[in-house]
What does this fold into?
Amino acid sequence: MGCGTAVHPWKVHHLDFRRIPLPARETSLRRAAEQGPKVCEYAARALYIAADTPRDIAYANARPDDKKKQTARFNGEPEMWVGAADLFHVLLDQVAGGEDAVDAVAEFGRALRVLTIESLDGRLTSLAGGGTGLQARVTAQSRLRRLLDHTTAPTQLKELPA
It folds into this structure.
């Protein structure tokens, strides 16, 4: 790669930023690469918790064997992770291009919040439009928003004050 610097970008399936010669951006890239997945993991946990809500309301008398299937039905994690991959690459590209890491991660978090909410909403469309289905949908959406705004949530996921 030049100047006798050895570049070994992969270390146990993860990008090892300590070995990539990017003098002025190494710290920023590392920060973004560490914070981005943490924000995603919190959002994924929030989606899983929110998925229990419609299951408990719409299928209150479900058999224990069916609970996992019903939680999976309402869990928007797969869609969130697919969309988050693209957002994460954009985040790294922005930081590598010179954008401030704090600003880029904040933008990433805002986009991930929208994606997380849309992922849950997409899974809730199978619920009936009224009665118990509506109650399950509204309660799950409210629970997800509370989790995303919780004191333990990454600041990047929290709704900005109006």
In short: The two ends are 48 Å apart (CA to CA). DSSP finds five helices and two strands in the chain. Residues 1-13 have pLDDT under 50 and may be disordered. The helical segments are 26-58, 64-74, 77-96, 101-124, 131-148.
